[in-house]
Amino acid sequence: MKRTSVIRNSCAFSAIAAVIVWSCNTATNAREQAPVPAAPAAVLLHVDTTAIPDDKYGEAVRYGRALMLNTAYYIGPDGTSGKYLGNRMNCTNCHQDAGTKPFSFNLMLSHENYPQYRAREGQVLTLAERVNNCVTRPHNGRPLPLNSKEMVAFLAYFRWINSFVPKTQPHKGSKNLPVTFPDIAASPVRGEALYQQHCARCHGNSGEGQLRPDNITYTYPPLWGKYGYQPGSSMHRIIKQAQWLKANMPYDKATWNRPFLSDAEAMDIAAFVNDDSRHPRPDIKNYDYPHPAEKAIDYDKGPYADTFPATQHKYGPYLPITDYYEKRGMKASY
Ligand code: HEC
Ligand code: HEC
């Protein structure tokens, strides 16, 4: 069955220039609808990689895209362009389709969103510095020089994909899929059973993933252990990971418009994957967030600007925490 045909309500794709418009009519009878002015439909973006220009800029864009897809080959532990990463994962393992897939830590807006204030550093960062955050963790590496061919290529690529974002219309999938917080804490124990059922066949019983036969990178990337992402990277946060799992995993079953896991299941699995007592990771030296009130509520290292223990920040229940922030007029970020 085609993916578009199983969606509730009547929905239709129509291609307009480089943009695909996703329009849904949820009413059974259009005449019953109140005559409110229609909000512009959110569009699904399509990046046409055959349109990368054939000039020096295009060369940088093309290399940037190659770096997103084959990061370990170029800048991994045995990288042909320099040894920067501490592990063999690729950017696209999390920013799928080289950062263009909706609801997969999508990077279509990054070019226009930086420089930006970042709570983790308590500073305004450039996009290049933000790229290096992911190079240093989750990739456990050392930062790329800001004027390196590789950094310039990443930035050229982000600028180029951003040119597909329409200026006057909203689009889908640059933010994460929201998850509804259950009343109870996420449980690594329930998560373990779900992991065995839905994840282990690709990522392995010990979360080690599966290396490609050439050993350069993975067919299935690792989820924990020496070669997985580090604590202090956003994937290590349970809400953040659950949002991503809901739209993207299991790889062969979930799509953003037809998630496979329920919100509670995604949180339980994320709790199991991120249970450091059973799944140690390479440690990091500093735990960031100079201003505790700006700390993401699912960050598992104190100090916090509230009275909740670190275990509740990590596993929930999160609703008492968001209520606490709301009552004091503070912003709960996650
Ligand atoms: C283990 C998963 C993972 C890998 C691998 C990864 N990232 Fe990220 N990256 C994230 C997460 C999580 C975020 C934050 C997303 C959010 O807050 O919703 C992020 C954010 C970013 C951002 C900021 C986006 C924005 O608009 O604010 C950039 C740029 C970025 N990553 C680039 C890279 C690059 C380049 C690589 C490869 C060198 C990479 N990432 C590898 C997980 C990953
Ligand atoms: C059919 C195989 C398959 C299954 C089943 C599967 N994954 Fe994945 N997973 C992948 C692949 C492939 C990628 C890398 C995606 C890419 O590069 O585009 C990935 C990436 C990931 C990542 C981000 C990269 C990293 O290693 O940190 C996480 C986290 C993840 N999967 C968790 C899960 C969880 C949890 C489940 C079970 C709910 C699951 N996966 C089920 C194939 C699978």
UniProtKB/TrEMBL annotation:
Statement: the UniProt record of this protein carries the keyword Iron: yes
Record keywords: Heme, Iron, Metal-binding, Signal
Signal peptide start and end residues: 1-17
SUPFAM superfamilies registered for this protein in UniProt: Cytochrome c
Matches recorded under PROSITE patterns: CYTC
Entry keyword S-adenosyl-L-methionine: no
InterPro entries (UniProt xref): Cyt_c-like_dom (IPR009056), Cyt_c-like_dom_sf (IPR036909), Cytochrome_c-type_DH (IPR051459)
GO molecular function, one term: heme binding
UniProt domain Cytochrome c: residue ranges: 186-277
Name this protein carries in UniProt: C-type cytochrome
